[in-house]
């Protein structure tokens, strides 16, 4: 069975670092992951995903990451249950992180927040440049694949 999760998102709040009864460090946090589409009102939708990380990685996350930081993570999906103070059974689904990557520097995050509105034109120009470059790359790839029929027989294709 495969149970792997890879996500990129922004921290919704500062990580919550605590210590278990046996002294193991654990941090809980939530990331917002944008969906690939926008709602009818033009607002981009996001999923808010609960995550947990253990030991030294938990300490590092709490030390260097704050609300709004962009991170990438890799882990597994876990479900568990517990009984709350009112005696009700609570079901929890969360990502147990194996690896976390900080995807922007602390100074970069501060600059992005302060200059968000000043750089919108620059970002649009960069996006246009990236789209243009990727279109050229795909054109070159398509040209290279035009002659592939001379090398591949129908019997060689397995589907």
UniProtKB/TrEMBL annotation:
Keywords, alphabetical: DNA-binding
Cited PROSITE patterns: SSB
Gene Ontology MF, one: single-stranded DNA binding
GO biological process: DNA replication
InterPro entries: NA-bd_OB-fold, Primosome_PriB/ssb, ssDNA-bd
A single Gene Ontology CC term: nucleoid
Subunit structure, interactors included: Homotetramer.
NCBIfam families xref list: ssb
PANTHER family assigned to the protein according to its UniProt record, in alphabetical order: SINGLE-STRANDED DNA-BINDING PROTEIN
Protein name in UniProt: Single-stranded DNA-binding protein
Organism: Candidatus Erysipelatoclostridium merdavium
Gene assigned in the entry: ssb
């Amino acid at each position: 069975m495969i149970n792997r999760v890879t996500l990129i998102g922004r921290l919704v709040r500062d990580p919550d670092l605590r210590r278990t009864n046996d002294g193991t460090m654990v941090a809980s946090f939530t990331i917002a992951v944008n969906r690939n589409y926008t709602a009818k009102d033009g607002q981009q939708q996001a999923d808010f995903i609960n995550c947990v990380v253990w030991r030294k990685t938990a300490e590092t996350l709490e030390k260097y990451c704050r609300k709004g930081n962009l991170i990438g993570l890799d882990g597994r999906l876990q479900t568990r249950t517990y009984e709350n103070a009112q005696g009700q059974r609570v079901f929890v689904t969360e990502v147990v992180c194996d690896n976390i990557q900080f995807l922007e520097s602390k100074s970069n995050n501060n600059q992005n927040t302060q200059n968000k509105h000043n750089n919108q034109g620059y970002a649009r120009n960069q996006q246009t440049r990236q789209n243009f470059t990727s279109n050229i790359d795909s054109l070159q790839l398509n040209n290279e694949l035009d002659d592939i029929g001379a090398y591949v027989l129908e019997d060689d294709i397995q589907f």
